[in-house]
Amino acid sequence: MTSQQLQRNNSAIERERSSTNCAPIPTNQNNDEEIPIIDLSNPNNEEVAIQLWNAAHNVGFFTLINHSIPQDQIDTLFSLSEQFFDLDSEIKHKYPFDREKNSGYEFMTQKPPSTNVVDLKETFQVTAREGCMDQLWPNEQPGFQDVIMGMIANAHALACRVLSLLESRACPHVERNTLPNAHHIWDEDGQCTLRLLHYPPTTIENAEEVDESTQSNTENGTNPRWRCGAHTDWGSLTLLFQRVGEDGLECRRREVNEGVEDGTSASWVEVPPVEGGITVNIGDMLKRWSDCKLYSNMHRVRMPKTIEECAKSRYSVAFFLQADKSALIENRSNDPITAGEYFAARINAHFAE
């Protein structure tokens, strides 16, 4: 693909991603403004599938409980993440982010198009594809690789289960098991990724400046700064592990703000951590695959609101279920595109030069 073709492709994907014309305002509104909680221990798979469909179609966010991933595995992962981000900067930069591999450490380089300023966070990213982590596994922490790979395996299995339960309603045009079978880990075509995230402490002055500037920035066309600017996710599903007491994630209130894309004038709903729960949101790939039946909702991490919150770091772990490079994303409204082409366009738009 030539550079001109790539640029045209990137522009078309961004226009499609930001378009809300194909996504009707839902008839089942989430009037209580709470993120749906879905219990996967329910033995009635059809009942669970309907709950997932309603949440994925109407809100784009939900929380899974009794999901089968052990809490001690999650706690160990968070402990490992804290230890990594506590390392000296020069040590962390021994494993620099490689855009081609979508792997490695980065410090404040992600720049959502909605804000055009870098996010106030550092991350370590692991793409579960053959060769992507060569020379990038930190050797300062014993067991780092084993813990990460163990979580990737369990998160992948859970995310594929969710896809299977959504598939018949979301993508009736595809053969059964097309969606889960299009997402692999640790082979030469895989794109699934696990990301450790750290939002460092800030000052109450910075938080107050963002809060007070929201209205004026909306009016004059500039953007306030957030810990993580408003964006949608690129992949099929995101599993987000949050810790109780480390708030900040918000998603857009859909019924009020259809068509608002920069995130500055939108109305927002808290997506709080739930004890023992995993937050899930629909990504742009699955929105496209489903002919926009599923809703990829814009979300952000706000700045802290109190002195106590400013003094604390926020840690989270995201697992991005992303289709294999060669997987063909087909629907009834758009030209087919491979997941590799789709993903390349999004990553090029997201990182600061």
Descriptive overview:
The structure is a single chain. The protein has 353 residues and is α+β, with helices and mostly antiparallel strands. Helix content is 35%, strand content 18%. The chain has eleven helices and 14 strands. The strands form three sheets. It has an eight-stranded mixed β-sheet. The protein has a four-stranded antiparallel β-sheet with strand order 6-11-8-9, with no helix packed on it. Strand 1, helix 2 (45-58) and strand 2 (61-65) form a beta-alpha-beta unit. Helix 2 crosses helix 5 (144-170) and helix 3 crosses helix 5. The protein is globular and about 50 Å long. Mean pLDDT is 84; it is low at 1-8, 27-31, 210-223 and 259-264.
Record keyword descriptors for this entry:
353 residues; alpha+beta; eight-stranded mixed sheet; four-stranded antiparallel sheet; 14 strands; 35% helix; globular; disordered N terminus
Largest sheet: 8 strands, mixed
Mean pLDDT: 84
Number of H/I helices: 11
Shape: globular
What low-confidence regions span 5 or more consecutive residues with pLDDT below 50?
1-8, 27-31, 210-223, 259-264
Radius of gyration computed on alpha carbons: 19 Å
Distance between the termini: 21 Å
Q: Find the structural class using helix and strand composition.
A: alpha+beta
**Tally of strands:** 14
How big a fraction of the residues is strand? Answer: 15-25%
Q: Give the topology string: H per helix, E per strand.
A: HEHEHHEEHHEHEEEHEEHEHEEEH
Instruction: Work out the helicity level.
Output: 25-40%
Strands side by side in the biggest sheet: 1-2-10-7-12-5-4-3
